[in-house]
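Quick review question:
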């Protein structure tokens, strides 16, 4: 049985439609009966013998980059105004972004929903086919629907589109055909340029899905930047993994109390070396009577000042004055940048000029931050 194309009542035409120019490589054939394109896209120039698999990979990347370039060019044209309308619609929504799709478009929709949610725009994915079996109850009148369909003619989308029209839920269509049933039913149409698929038969969704993912990323980042979403806010949504570790604070990794190697001014180097060895961090912090850091002695300082009377002189003569310090509230990512820039392995942590902790690069490596 041949499925009927998606036809809905309620909305007659989109209020905002940004049509992208077609890429010069031509459109995707609508059926296998039409003349198939060449089974081999243009070859990539090579300076020497290259395995066939690498040649294939290069052709794929070249073809897909053409799609991204076509999308960028479209955004510089009429599609840009439509994109801005979509961003504003989502920004003004009181509810969430409901991303929907089927097949490969559905997989891209799940990714887009996850990216939106992790960057401060509440969103989740509803499978278009499941929507008609009860999942429409997940969608409220305060939400915005973002429907992905390359052709815009998937009949499984009909129930969701009708629901959108019935309850006046605004809908953004991401499709390559603004004149499609989905495009005609949507409030805003982000029309993606028709670009050649990387598949040699121009059939398997490759370039098209990459463009869907890219426009989703573009929406997420535009919304992120528009609301001033910070790294600290990102940390609330992403406490796990390496990203979560990098978004913790210096206070989460610093050693405190008796673990800090510290000696007062006027101490003999022999005592400072014992303290360095006991704490095992390859350094000792030198403080004044108020507990403020006035210097630091590292293994490197010992090597640079190696001499017969080294253990009998005072730390004041050997220490590096005005050591670099960081506050406990600094992000771990910023702390790593300080370590890398200054090419050091240890940082003193101070609060109100007093030493409250110390961080070593090895601690960050063990935590998976560095």
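Suggested answer, residue by residue:
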């Amino acid at each position: 049985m041949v499925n009927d194309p998606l036809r809905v009542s309620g909305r007659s035409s989109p209020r905002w439609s940004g049509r992208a120019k077609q890429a010069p490589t031509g459109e995707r054939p609508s059926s296998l009966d039409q003349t198939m394109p060449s089974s081999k896209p243009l070859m990539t120039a090579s300076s020497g013998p290259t395995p066939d698999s690498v040649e294939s990979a290069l052709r794929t990347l070249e073809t897909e980059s053409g799609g991204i370039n076509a999308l960028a060019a479209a955004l510089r044209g009429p599609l840009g105004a439509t994109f801005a309308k979509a961003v504003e619609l989502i920004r003004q929504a009181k509810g969430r972004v409901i991303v929907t799709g089927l097949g490969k478009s559905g997989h891209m929709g799940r990714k887009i929903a996850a990216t939106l949610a992790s960057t401060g725009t509440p969103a989740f994915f509803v499978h278009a086919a499941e929507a008609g079996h009860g999942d429409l109850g997940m969608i409220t009148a305060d939400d915005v629907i973002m429907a992905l369909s390359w052709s815009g003619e998937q009949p499984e989308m009909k129930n969701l589109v009708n629901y959108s029209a019935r309850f006046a839920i605004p809908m953004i269509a991401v499709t390559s055909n603004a004149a499609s049933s989905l495009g005609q039913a949507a409030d805003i149409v982000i029309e993606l340029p028709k670009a050649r698929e990387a598949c040699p038969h121009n059939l398997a969704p490759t370039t098209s899905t990459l463009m869907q993912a890219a426009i989703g990323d573009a929406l997420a980042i535009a919304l992120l930047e528009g609301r001033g979403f910070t790294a600290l806010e990102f940390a609330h949504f992403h406490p796990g993994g390496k990203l979560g570790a990098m978004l913790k604070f210096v206070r989460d990794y610093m050693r405190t109390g008796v673990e800090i190697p510290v000696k007062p001014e006027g101490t003999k180097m022999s005592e400072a070396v014992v303290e360095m060895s006991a704490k095992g961090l390859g350094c000792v912090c030198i403080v004044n009577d108020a507990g403020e850091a006035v210097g630091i002695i590292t293994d490197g300082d010992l090597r640079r000042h190696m001499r017969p009377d080294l253990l009998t002189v005072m730390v004041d003569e050997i220490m590096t004055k005005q050591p670099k310090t960081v506050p406990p509230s600094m992000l771990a990512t910023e702390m790593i940048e300080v370590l890398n820039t200054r090419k050091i392995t240890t940082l003193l942590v101070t609060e109100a000029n007093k030493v409250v902790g110390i961080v070593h690069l090895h601690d960050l490596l063990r935590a998976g931050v560095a």
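Why it works: The CA atoms of residues 269 and 315 lie 5 Å apart. The chain has two domains: 56-229, 250-367.
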